[in-house]
Structure prediction request, 166 residues.
Amino acid sequence: MEEITKSLLFALLLIVIIFAFGVVAYHNLEGWGWVDCIYFMSSTVTTVGYGDIVPTTDEAKLFTVFFMWTGISIGFYLIYTISKYREEKIDHRLLPFIAHVMGGKKGKATSKRGPYSPGEFDEMPMDLRQMINPARPSERRKTKQVGRLPPPIHHKVHKPKRKYKK
Prediction:
């Protein structure tokens, strides 16, 4: 199994564990129903927080603080992992097809993966690549010198002339 697939399964397992732990904890601490616990957990992890269900006991409030930090962090990790999985597993199959449809290389290349070879993506114009996947840095951004500030702009300060002498 590849590393990115392992990371995705690990992130999914973490979110399931935190949800199961949180649902049981809120059910015992607050006495809420199972559906209310799942609803509160979902609105907290997704940072929506409607506010219609709130913890009332001190123990549940402290647990909520712990859960917010861990649950939101794991949620963001899951989103990041899904994004990386999509980029590594899906884009190399999808982008050559889009390049072909939008006027890229004519004809069909033969490869083991299907009618479009992974090399066709390299022949796609950079602007088209950037439009399809805006998260991928463009060549212009890569070649700019990072950390260097532009030269300062010196403006002449206009001082009004005094009409009256002292």
